[in-house]
């Protein structure tokens, strides 16, 4: 068992942050952790790493209690830039991590190259941009090649190129058997890595694969972009049954739920209209997020 959290509770004064939380990870995977600010994502990460005590419950990492020193070389946690020492260089930080894990200098230099850090790694952290700090934090967290990696908002401050590098690094790590949990507000980037999402709501985790959640979603009206060979007469027929807007000769936007979607496809088929593409206007994760947190 990679991670096993049992009946975890955590409160701050009168606010219940983690509410009898339970989840487990049995096989290596990439997971997204999604929730609004202040919902407890960082608290959950801190609890897993035993940086914050929990009120009750148990957390096991690779079948050892999370308070065991035995997990030190098996997992890593990327926190925010507050943990960095501004008077030290990025190189200083990486050498310290390498020394703790007995990693040779050649591997550290290779990682610096992979993350495109050469031009600033020997400068003081006080001169770094947010993106540079995030890259350094990522380097520190993956240098030991952990089998469990927690990343708290790793995409903050990263440009498109850095996001591409980040994605390749994470996928490469995962291919070697590393489990990665990513907390982020960048839902589009998370979906490029995984569709296995955990939503943290009211102190409990809800999987994006939860049957009740998907059933509720199927009843919600959502917008689709559709590419099809549509005639004026068919458009007028569809307009009577659906919320529809014609964008161009071959493109429409239509608002419908999953059941209405089946009727729409059937109606097009009856009228010998070819549908070339149909997709959600906004990604699935964002749609589920809105349903859970904005309704």
Automatic annotation (TrEMBL):
<keyword id="KW-0547">Nucleotide-binding</keyword>
<dbReference type="InterPro" id="IPR003593">
    <property type="entry name" value="AAA+_ATPase"/>
</dbReference>
<dbReference type="GO" id="GO:0005524">
    <property type="term" value="F:ATP binding"/>
</dbReference>
<dbReference type="GO" id="GO:0016887">
    <property type="term" value="F:ATP hydrolysis activity"/>
</dbReference>
<dbReference type="Pfam" id="PF00005">
    <property type="entry name" value="ABC_tran"/>
</dbReference>
<keyword id="KW-0813">Transport</keyword>
<feature type="domain" description="ABC transporter">
    <location>
        <begin position="3"/>
        <end position="227"/>
    </location>
</feature>
<dbReference type="InterPro" id="IPR051782">
    <property type="entry name" value="ABC_Transporter_VariousFunc"/>
</dbReference>
<dbReference type="InterPro" id="IPR027417">
    <property type="entry name" value="P-loop_NTPase"/>
</dbReference>
<dbReference type="InterPro" id="IPR003439">
    <property type="entry name" value="ABC_transporter-like_ATP-bd"/>
</dbReference>
<protein>
    <submittedName>
        <fullName>ABC transporter ATP-binding protein</fullName>
    </submittedName>
</protein>
<keyword id="KW-0067">ATP-binding</keyword>
């Amino acid at each position: 068992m990679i991670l096993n959290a049992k009946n975890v509770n955590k409160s701050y004064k009168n606010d219940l942050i983690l509410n009898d939380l339970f989840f487990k990870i049995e096989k290596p995977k990439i997971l997204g952790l999604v929730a609004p600010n202040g919902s407890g994502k960082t608290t959950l990460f801190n609890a897993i790493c035993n940086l914050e005590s929990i009120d009750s419950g148990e957390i096991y990492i690779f079948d050892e209690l999370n308070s065991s020193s035995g997990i030190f070389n098996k997992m890593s946690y990327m926190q925010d830039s507050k943990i960095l020492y501004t008077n030290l260089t990025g190189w200083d930080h990486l050498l310290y991590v390498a020394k703790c894990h007995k990693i040779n200098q050649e591997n550290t230099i290779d990682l610096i190259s992979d993350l495109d850090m050469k031009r600033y790694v020997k400068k003081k952290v006080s001169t770094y941009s947010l993106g540079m700090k995030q890259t350094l934090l990522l380097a520190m967290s993956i240098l030991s090649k952990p089998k469990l990696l927690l990343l708290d908002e790793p995409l903050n401050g990263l440009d498109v190129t850095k996001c591409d590098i980040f994605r390749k690094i994470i996928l490469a790590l995962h291919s070697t058997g590393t489990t990665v949990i990513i907390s982020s507000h960048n839902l589009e980037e998370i979906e490029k890595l995984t569709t296995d999402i955990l939503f943290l709501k009211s102190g409990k985790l809800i999987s994006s694969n939860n049957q009740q959640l998907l059933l509720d979603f199927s009843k919600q009206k959502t917008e689709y972009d559709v590419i099809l060979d549509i005639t004026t007469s068919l458009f007028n027929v569809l307009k009577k049954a659906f919320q529809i807007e014609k964008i161009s000769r071959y493109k429409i936007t239509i608002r419908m739920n999953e059941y209405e979607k089946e009727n729409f496809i059937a109606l097009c088929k009856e009228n010998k209209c070819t549908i070339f593409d149909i997709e959600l206007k906004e990604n699935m994760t964002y749609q589920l997020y809105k349903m859970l947190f904005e309704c």
